[in-house]
Amino acid sequence: MKRGTRVTALAAATVLGGAGTAAAAAPVHAEYTVTGSTHIAKPDADLELGPGQFAVDLGPGTYSGTITLPPVEVTRSVPGVGRVGGTVTFGPGHAEGSVSGGFSGSATWPVRLSDVRVNGVPFDVGPECGTAEPVTTGWTSGEFAAGRGGRLESTYAIGAFENCGAATPLINGFVPGDGNTLTLDLTPA
Predict the structure, then answer these.
(1) Which of 59, 104, 138, 175 registers the highest number of CB atoms within 10 A of its CB?
(2) Distance from C-alpha of 86 to C-alpha of 21, rounded to nearest angstrom
């Protein structure tokens, strides 16, 4: 039996078996490839995410791990300003939750902006431009299974940005708000 198959089988047995012997209660490490998309409602922007990685420890009925995604380039027209572009970095995100009776949980993600350009001209937002508080995405999945993966979906809010220099008011007028969506597809790595 290949190592990945053994880990998957052990993870499934641990998750499905719940509490048992001390050996069965030990967390099992698994890794998933993450792809997906997010829709940022206020600027009406769709961003393709990934491929990234979800490194997770599965315990009896619970999980805890880290989701890493590569930065994403985005360019949008802003009325009265012109073409505004930059790099958006989500995370890394810390995820935890339950796999008992389904899959549910949340992740917290710092969101950073960098390499901002206005009409093609670099605009310095500094190295610490990002959300004042991490974004929290809560999710559920009726189809996720240890060893197989599945789709996670969430609706979330983006809070105010800070440390973006003179661009802070523009960013806060254009990005933060409710009604953003996130879809992540996890497949065994």
Answers:
(1) 175
(2) 51
